[in-house]
């Protein structure tokens, strides 16, 4: 059983979700983080191979979104790439995940087509809305940042977003400011998020 020393704002797993851990020898949060990071790195390498060679119809659909999560976490969790079925401390009702994710991806297609927002703002809004939906049992923050950066690079000309590196995954000032900015965006005020990440 994995210990429950989660950083602030982390999504706790249900007992059934914890049972989906493929590496049964994992006992601590540190061991789990290390295993997940290795899998995430492999998923990012696969994703980067698609940079500049994918159109919005391919990258902005539910199948791509689920495959990306599976690429990032599939060696760790049996449920990787599958929408969560349980309520969490964050996220919408699980029954609406598929519809809301499809709506978000369609919105981004329109943002691209009509140049609705500056690139960095569109990238950050996509990230926030994806986190707010919280499609999967775990890994949503890391997944949303990587997916948002991919969208930013491929459709909005954003080179990179400086999220704060590994310090964003542990309790501290950077994580606190990030979570506060996301909560402000939940209320419709994107200014703190834009200020935090817009150069």
TrEMBL record:
Residues 1-20 are annotated as: Disordered. It comes from the Bacteria. Residues 60-199 form the Fido domain. Pfam families: Fic. PANTHER family: CELL FILAMENTATION PROTEIN (PTHR13504:SF39), FIDO DOMAIN-CONTAINING PROTEIN DDB_G0283145 (PTHR13504). This is Mobile mystery protein B.
């Amino acid at each position: 059983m994995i210990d429950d020393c989660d950083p602030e704002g982390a999504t706790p797993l249900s007992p059934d979700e914890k049972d989906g851990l493929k590496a049964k020898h994992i006992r601590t949060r540190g061991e789990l983080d290390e295993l997940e990071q290795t899998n995430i790195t492999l998923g990012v390498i696969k994703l980067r191979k698609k940079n500049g060679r994918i159109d919005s119809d391919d990258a902005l659909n539910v199948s791509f979104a689920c495959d990306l999560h599976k690429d990032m976490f599939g060696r760790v969790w049996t449920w990787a790439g599958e929408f969560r079925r349980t309520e969490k401390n964050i996220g919408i009702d699980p029954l609406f995940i598929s519809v809301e994710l499809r709506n978000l991806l369609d919105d981004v297609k329109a943002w691209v087509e009509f140049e609705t927002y500056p690139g960095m703002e569109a990238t950050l809004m996509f990230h926030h809305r994806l986190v707010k939906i919280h499609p999967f049992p775990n890994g949503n923050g890391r997944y949303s940042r990587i997916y948002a950066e991919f969208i930013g690079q491929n459709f909005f000309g954003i080179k990179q977003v400086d999220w704060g590196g590994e310090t964003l995954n542990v309790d501290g000032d950077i994580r606190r400011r990030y979570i506060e900015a996301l909560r402000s965006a939940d209320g419709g005020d994107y200014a703190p998020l834009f200020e935090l990440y817009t150069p």
